[in-house]
Amino acid sequence: MNVTQESVAAGLKHADYITNQRVETAVFLALALEKPLLIEGPAGAGKTEVAKVVAAMLPAELVRLQCYEGLDEARALYEWNYQKQLLRLQADEANGARWEDLSEHIFSHEYLLERPLLKAITSPRRVVLLIDEIDKADEEFEAFLLELLSDFQVSIPELGTLRAHERPVVVLTSNRARELSEALRRRCLHLFIDFPGIEQERKIIALKVPGLDERLAAEAARFVGAVRKLGLRKPPSIAETLDWCRALVRLGIAELDSESIRTALGVLLKHEDDRATVESKASALAARRP
Amino acid sequence: MTPFREQMVNFIAALRAAGIRISVSESIDALRAVAAAGFERAPMREAMAAALIKDEADRIVFDDAFARFFAAPAAGAARGTHPDHRGQLESAASGRGRPGEERGDVSKPRERPQPSRPGAKSAAREQDDHAENRRSDRSEAKTTVRGESKPESEAGSAQSPTAKNDGPEDSGIESGRAARIRVLERAPFAAYTDLEYAQARDTLAMLKRRFRVRLGRRLRIAKAGRIDFRRTIRAATQRGGVLADLRFRARRPRRIDLTILADISGSVRYAAELMLELIAGARDHFHRVRSFVYIDRLAEAEFESGHLVMTPALDLYARSDFGRVLSELWSRRAETLGRQTVVVILGDGRNNRRPARADLLREIARNCRAVVWLNPEEPARWGTGDSAIVQYAREVRAHLAARNLHELERGLLAIA
To answer: How far apart are CA A108 and CA B184, in angstroms?
Structure first.
């Protein structure tokens, strides 16, 4: 498929993802150079969303691998279906089958349980492989990923090396709970997604919460932007901002003042001390209007 | 080589000189990325950044160097639009720095007016080199601080709609913060003034959280212990009695007692206080934590609402005597040393030529699980003058440099 920068920009727009030049270029390069894309940024800035949008744009199936501590090859790549193999062995025992035939048989694709990584490699059509929160996985797993990311192939001892028919589009996301290794970074293109600016956030709100009054949307964007600068424990994410705007619509709030801010603050902030900080400054934040 | 490629190679060399690690494959990626994205300024910059910059904190250095190497079309029109303009190339060639130069230097040429004559440029550069040679460690720290104040102003300008034409629309909140923390983490303790210390304290809340998480990971109990026979048999009954699925007994949780000795004499005071606070934040990962501070005697240290409280109070103007501190620990505080104990010592081992008593440290090391020594001094100065660190270092399991917050955190993770 021929991708151009314009087609990517148009595709992202079509998939309702409001973004900037930085994201467009990075996504375009990931597709054009067929390299994995490593996305970092604060929680809730839309990292995972990029992969979903790319899948919707191509269109391609999205294969998702959620990383967690203790994730191993058996759950990420493949596992032999032991139960089925045992059944086969016991069934063949009665028929008196020879061991050679048997061992050849039970280590074939039929007895392989595909996990996300193998699925992405063996799929006949191009897929988008999302490796989410790679920083949560252990360092050993990261090292294991290197072969996959540079050559798009995996080695299974019993079957040999499997190579991808169609190179998948790989998107990795990280919240920086741990420093990723240089080796991994080197193999990826890098994209940092920060919280959106006020103008961009206003556009996002206008698109996703159409019921909200335009002026109020601008005020909400400005307010959230100011709240993020307070250095809270957990600054509000875009999803929380949108929830909050929906709450404003449902509550029928027409004006952002310190009173109306207090009523729905729980949607925006999830820590008690953050809430206290913002409430104490609510009137000042609300009053900061042009 | 085509002029553009040459320009790219120089550009990458300049980034490397500024301390950004770029591999050969990454620079090839960058060229391919530009080939794919085209030569329009904004996409080209983002394409290069995606291929070359793998840490958002380095982005400021990149943007700055990019502005120097690839002039904006407006400025380029006045001097000829081709990227291979003499003045540009010249500044590119002289823009390379010596390895190990601080990042602040990269931002410097921007503050000077861009000279158009190569001769004037090289003269200015020469002067600059002289000035750099004369600079002490201290002023080097100043430049890093100056570099650090920049993201703030950039984040501010990104908010105003007029400044939007160049940079992408981003709030810059997180990227600015990441850059600030990174610079601060690498500022040496030796160059700390009260200002830097206050800044370090401000970001400490975040560092504390991160340290807690990282330490927790290190201490994670390995699941694979010995085989649990009963549970394995029970699992096997589901498989017709075949032992296909082995079950393991979880390993006994490791408990670590921590005993900390931190030197709070003038030279290493900041490092000591920051370390004590970092550890205080991760207290619940340990079975028991005992913190002591010392100069010439030992005092128990406690954190009360962010302030260091010691009992008994130490004479802050005394001369360091670690030998005496060791004997005090060995004879009177022996209850804090046991088989489960990890002893962490922070200090420069400068003993004012008093008896080192390294034999006591050996005894302590034999009785404890491990002794780790963190040294905030420059490695080149270890063992010089009145430093007894060489004698101590022989007795401990690990002797690590802890010149800045970054190294301090790494050293503390060695406990686990």
So the answer is: 55
A·B CB contacts under 8 A: 117
pTM: 0.66
Which residues in chain B have Cβ-Cβ distances shorter than 8 Å to A20?
168-170
* B374 backbone dihedrals φ, ψ, rounded to 5°: -110, 125
Classify strands A160-163 and A153-156 as parallel, antiparallel or unpaired.
antiparallel
pLDDT (tens digit per residue) in A68-122: 887 888 888 888 888 888 888 888 777 777 777 777 778 888 888 889 998 998 8
Q: Which CATH class is domain A5-77+115-192?
A: alpha beta
Q: B242 and B368: one domain?
A: no
Nearest to A182 among B21, B50, B51 (CB): B21
8 Å CB contact of B159 and A194: no
A273 Cβ partners below 8 Å, 6+ apart?
A: A233
Question: Which residues does chain B have within 8 Å of residue A179's beta carbon, measured at their own beta carbons?
Answer: none
Inter-chain residue contact A22 with B54, CB threshold 8 Å:
no
What's the length of chain A?
Answer: 290
CB atoms within 10 A of CB A98: 9
Domain that holds residue B231: 220-253
Task: Give the three-class secondary structure for A79.
Answer: strand
* Domain-embedded: residue B199: no
A50, A193 contact by CB (below 8 A):
yes
List C-alpha distances in Å: B243 to A88, A158, B226.
16, 21, 15
Whether B187 is in a domain gets the answer no
Q: Determine the distance in angstroms separating the CA of B358 from the nearest CA of chain A, rounded to an integer.
A: 37
Question: What digits encode the pLDDT tens for the residues B135-176?
Answer: 444 443 343 333 334 344 443 333 333 333 444 566 677 777
Query: How are beta strands A61-66 and A127-132 bridged, if at all?
Result: parallel
Question: Taking CB atoms and an 8 Å limit, are B36 and A20 in contact across chains?
Answer: no
Number of domains present in the structure of chain B: 3
pLDDT tens, position by position, A93-103: 777 777 777 77
From B106, B135, B164, give the residue that closes a domain: B135
Structure tokens at A36: 């994995």
Provide the pLDDT confidence category of residue A62 given band limits of 50, 70 and 90.
very high
